[in-house]
Design brief:
By secondary structure, the chain is an alpha+beta fold. It has one domain: Aminopeptidase, CATH 3.40.630.30. Helices cover 28% and strands 37% of the residues. Strands 1-2-3-4-5-7-6 form a seven-stranded mixed sheet, sandwiched between helices. Helix 3 links the parallel strand 4 and strand 5. The longest helix has 15 residues. It starts with 9 loop residues before the first strand and ends in a 7-residue tail after the last strand. It binds coenzyme A. The site of coenzyme A has 18 residues, from strand 4, helix 3 and helix 4. One of its GO terms (molecular function) is N-acetyltransferase activity. Keywords: Acyltransferase, Transferase. It holds the Pfam family Acetyltransf_1. It comes from Nocardiopsis sinuspersici. This is Ribosomal-protein-alanine N-acetyltransferase.
Length: 158
């Protein structure tokens, strides 16, 4: 795993059960309308087809992301960064890590869903070569989901 993020003092490492309380605090803050339950997160960590990472600044968790891989397909299950450090490249570092892990495991087609009212996340995904391929009406609490796909070798990956 790429441990450095390019952001001073922020490193990536694998998410463990011990991170769950800190991650859930961020989850409830950053996804006020559709936060996962703690049980969902723990269930994800127990799945062998998942790769979850946290971005840590000292002892503090400032971001996290999760990959589901079933080659040749993979999904960005979740991604979030503490608002205090938005715009410094932590989200990009987390996404780079998921894409690198996915590629190493033979994933060529990555998918994700993102709220239609979340242009910030959509821009980040577009920057990494994700393209909108569909809409899921009413997928989220109060919003549609845009379905995005990134095919290895197409589009950009910085
Ligand atoms: C979406 C989210 C993960 C982005 O995280 P982030 O850490 O701010 O992402 P980055 O800093 O890598 O990129 C965001 C912007 O900052 C800019 N940026 C990155 N590094 C930078 C730097 N060193 N200096 C200045 N700007 C920078 C990027 O160009 C990018 O701009 P763009 O969106 O106009 O392309 C974060 O806003 C978040 O957690 N939102 C709430 C939860 C959420 O929506 N998750 C996604 C669900 S699908």
């Amino acid at each position: 795993m790429t441990e450095t993020t390019g952001v001073t003092g922020v490193r990536l490492r694998e998410m463990t059960d011990a991170d769950v309380p800190a991650v859930m605090t961020l989850e409830r803050t950053l996804f006020p309308l559709d936060a996962w339950s703690e049980g969902m997160l723990r269930g994800e960590l127990a799945e062998p087809t998942r790769h979850y990472v946290v971005a840590a600044s000292g002892d503090a968790v400032v971001g996290y992301a999760g990959l589901r891989f079933v080659p040749p397909e993979g999904d960005v299950q979740t991604m979030a960064v503490s608002e205090q450090v938005w715009g410094r490249g932590v989200g990009g570092a987390l996404l780079t890590e998921l894409l690198d892990q996915a590629a190493r495991r033979g994933v060529t087609h990555m998918f994700l869903e993102v709220r239609s009212d979340n242009p910030r996340a959509q821009r980040l995904y577009e920057r990494f070569g994700f393209v909108q391929i569909g809409v899921r009406r009413g997928y989220y609490n109060g919003a549609d989901a845009l379905v995005m796909r990134r095919v290895a070798g197409e589009g950009s990956h910085e």
